[in-house]
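Throughout our pipeline, every protein is held as a single compact record rather than as scattered files. Nothing more is needed to write down the fold, since each code stands for a local backbone conformation. For reference, a complete record is included directly beneath this paragraph.
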Amino acid sequence: MIADHLFFAGINVLLAWSVYAVLLTGSLSFAQGAFMAIGCYGAGILTVKFGWPLLPATLVAAAASALIAAMLGYPALRQRGIYLILVTLGITFCVRVVIENVKYVGGVAGFGGMVGADLNSVLIALAIVGSLLMALSYSPLQRVCDAVREDDRVAASLGINVTAVRLMGFSAGAAIAAVAGSLYGHYMNFVRPESFDVLLSIYVVLYVVLGGANNLWGPLLGAAVMTLLPEYFRVLADWRPSVFGLAILVMLLFRPQGLLAFRTLTTRFKPKGLPS
């Protein structure tokens, strides 16, 4: 039971980091449920239908998810604000509808037979993804992401390809979500399309908001708390959803910056020669 809770907490941390990767470039995605589904079903087809090992199947599914994200993101990331949110929510809805109508993967009945993932698998994935994101924060590429996030027009005037940077973040987030989807499917052994609905994408963004979007550890804490805390509310029986929802509301009202509010991203981008 404890291993199950830790596994699902790890999956949610990966999903939260997938949103964090998109936020690094100043965009917000509600499409992580779609890319998680692509990773789950893509890797599942390779392992169940073609007998691939889990690792290469997961890597191929992550690459495919990143490629699909790049194709969908090129028109989607031209939108800003509420329009970008609606477009990414639409991606999640469309992917679910497609999966429900593909009989090759079971359609609405679901897809099963996936095995091979365990708690160690998700811990290894967390270590790799966390290390890559940490390395990014100390690389020159982080400064480029900061420039695009803080003021894309100034970044463009400095010769930065804003669209390419945003696509990179969107695709990276999709790949991380796909890894989470592959591990989730191969742990559960059986999945249905409704496991990857719009509500999942909204929850993932909430993990980041509650934990703190300005640093790598905020999404980790937010996902862990949102996954494990409801288990301690089981003693409240039918009142559990109401109490948990009230706790989230109080958190958003009195600490909107998140549980971990410190900033580990590179300091605010300031082009040379311009006033602070």
In short: Strands lie at 111-112, 190-191.
